[in-house]
């Protein structure tokens, strides 16, 4: 048995964070927990930090610090708040770090962890979308490793084990189709946030669930595939697979397709990254294929899901367009959740933001460092907010 491993979990109170804690809790003596971070759910954060004996618990909201301190009183766990504290926690030496904050806010802490040489289990797909080259360069420079945790990318990673990347002809990312897969197109304009926040197969955070209905999540994942595996955009495909049992397929030059099949349970991809390079037993359901009977596929229609078309444009443009795409998407999603714009208007906001900023920030040839990425992110949020202001209406009153 190896010595205990030092682990940190960013976004510990979220859906991925809690699934990660579930796995660690099953074998507590194998791990020494360094930092847990979260947001407003300081009760959960403090309880987990105390149970796991973490060094430090950090909330991103300064106003929650007194509550976090009170909840941790007498536990021996340090309490802290705010962005600087997040970065300080991320700079503490750890062997394995889970990056599971939602949104572009996950970029800086994950990057800092990579700079310590840690293995970064990357659930935060936005890091790769906004700053793929920066993430890969940081890992290389500091001897760190990035392991994908998004189920599709874990699937591709596993299908590529022992393979020659130059023999890869295509990568096929599957999509469940989300909440509105079978809705008539004309109904989509009036879809509400509550309707969008239900997923047929996966149990995830609210934002990624709505992003599944609009396929902005799949769009981010296509860009993530290009950035992570360095695969040309025209070799990356999407297919709708309503059962969500095949997570991705890799096609090779000899015509073989390697598919990764498993239940829709993120503990598989998290556990794979946690135990890599070994495989260990995981508490996920074993599939009974005869009981499942059939797996089905349909084309991913870009009329129903225009976010997929935008993803192609972003993959081809490269540079800072991923950061702009993601920031505009985050603001459009906020506005949809706040009922300021309709479901279909999210794509319009993102498309218009990309159009507006493409000239302004030199999308393709800008240097990608944390400053330029954060600047592009900032400009895109501002532009998206302006565009939303013009569109805004109270749609469901
Ligand atoms: P979630 O909303 O359930 O949890 C998000 C976590 O981030 C929480 O701990 C929250 O407190 C923290 N957080 C939110 N805003 C923050 C900020 N500004 N600064 C610091 N911390 C902040 O989200 P989730 O579903 O667990 O997803 C996390 C990430 O993993 C996302 O990037 C998502 O796309 C990705 N992912 C999730 C799933 C899934 O099954 N949930 C699957 C694949 C990939
Ligand atoms: Mg995914």
Automatic annotation (TrEMBL):
Pathway(s) it belongs to: Isoprenoid biosynthesis; isopentenyl diphosphate biosynthesis via DXP pathway; isopentenyl diphosphate from 1-deoxy-D-xylulose 5-phosphate: step 1/6
Domain 1-deoxy-D-xylulose 5-phosphate reductoisomerase N-terminal: 7-132
EC number: 1.1.1.267
Listed GO biological process terms: isopentenyl diphosphate biosynthetic process, methylerythritol 4-phosphate pathway involved in terpenoid biosynthetic process
Domain of life: Bacteria
UniProt KW Coiled coil keyword: no
Binding site for Mn(2+): 150, 152, 221
Domain DXP reductoisomerase C-terminal: 262-382
Alphabetical keyword list: Isomerase, Isoprene biosynthesis, Magnesium, Manganese, Metal-binding, NADP, Oxidoreductase
Positions contributing to 1-deoxy-D-xylulose 5-phosphate binding: 125, 151-152, 176, 199, 212, 217-218, 221
Cofactor: Mg(2+); Mn(2+)
Record flagged with keyword Chaperone: no
Molecular function GO terms recorded: 1-deoxy-D-xylulose-5-phosphate reductoisomerase activity; isomerase activity; manganese ion binding; NADPH binding
EC class (word): oxidoreductase
Gene3D superfamilies in the cross-refs: 1.10.1740.10, NAD(P)-binding Rossmann-like Domain (3.40.50.720)
Catalyses which reaction(s): 2-C-methyl-D-erythritol 4-phosphate + NADP(+) = 1-deoxy-D-xylulose 5-phosphate + NADPH + H(+)
SUPFAM superfamilies xrefs: 1-deoxy-D-xylulose-5-phosphate reductoisomerase, C-terminal domain, Glyceraldehyde-3-phosphate dehydrogenase-like, C-terminal domain, NAD(P)-binding Rossmann-fold domains
Binding-site residues, NADPH: 13-16, 39-41, 124, 126, 205
1-deoxy-D-xylulose 5-phosphate reductoisomerase C-terminal domain residues: 146-229
Stored InterPro entries: DXP_reductoisomerase, DXP_reductoisomerase_C, DXP_reductoisomerase_N, DXPR_C, DXPR_C_sf, NAD(P)-bd_dom_sf
Family, as annotated: Belongs to the DXR family.
Function: Catalyzes the NADPH-dependent rearrangement and reduction of 1-deoxy-D-xylulose-5-phosphate (DXP) to 2-C-methyl-D-erythritol 4-phosphate (MEP).
The name this protein goes by in its record: 1-deoxy-D-xylulose 5-phosphate reductoisomerase
């Amino acid at each position: 048995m190896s010595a205990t491993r030092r682990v940190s979990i960013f976004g510990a109170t979220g859906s991925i964070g809690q699934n990660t804690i579930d796995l660690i809790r099953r074998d507590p003596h194998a791990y020494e927990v360094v930092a847990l971070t979260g947001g407003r759910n300081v009760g959960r954060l403090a309880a987990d930090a105390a149970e796991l004996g973490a060094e430090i618990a950090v909330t991103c909201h300064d106003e929650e610090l007194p509550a976090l301190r009170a909840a941790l009183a007498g536990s021996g766990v340090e309490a802290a708040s705010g962005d600087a504290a997040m970065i300080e926690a991320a700079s503490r030496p750890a062997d394995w770090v889970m990056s599971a904050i939602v949104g572009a806010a996950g970029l800086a802490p994950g990057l800092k962890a990579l700079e310590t040489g840690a293995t970064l289990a990357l659930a935060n797909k936005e890091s790769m979308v906004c700053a793929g080259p920066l993430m890969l360069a940081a890992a290389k420079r500091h001897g760190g490793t990035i392991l994908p945790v998004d189920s599709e990318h874990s699937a591709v990673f596993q299908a590529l084990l022992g393979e020659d990347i130059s023999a890869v002809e295509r990568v096929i990312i599957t999509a469940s189709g989300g909440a509105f897969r079978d809705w008539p197109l004309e109904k989509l304009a009036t879809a509400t946030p509550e309707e969008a926040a239900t997923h047929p197969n996966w149990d995830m955070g609210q934002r990624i669930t709505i992003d599944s209905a609009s396929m902005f999540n799949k769009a981010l994942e296509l860009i993530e595939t290009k950035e992570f595996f360095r695969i040309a955009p025209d070799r990356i495909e999407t297919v709708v697979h309503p059962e969500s049992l095949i997570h991705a397929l890799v096609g090779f030059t000899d015509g073989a397709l390697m598919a990764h099949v498993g239940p829709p349970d993120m503990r598989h991809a998290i556990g794979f990254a946690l135990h890599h390079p070994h495989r260990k037993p995981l508490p996920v359901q074993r599939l009974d294929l005869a009981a499942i009977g059939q797996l089905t596929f349909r084309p991913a229609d870009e009329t129903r899901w225009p976010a997929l078309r935008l993803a192609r444009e972003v993959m081809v443009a490269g540079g800072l367009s991923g950061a702009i795409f993601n920031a505009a998407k985050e603001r459009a999603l906020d506005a949809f959740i706040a009922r300021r714009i309709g479901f279909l208007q999210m794509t319009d906001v993102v498309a218009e933001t990309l159009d507006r900023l493409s000239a302004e920030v030199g999308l393709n040839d800008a240097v990608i460092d944390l400053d330029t990425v954060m600047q592009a992110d900032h400009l895109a949020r501002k532009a998206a907010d302006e565009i939303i202001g013009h569109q805004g209406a109270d749609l469901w009153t």
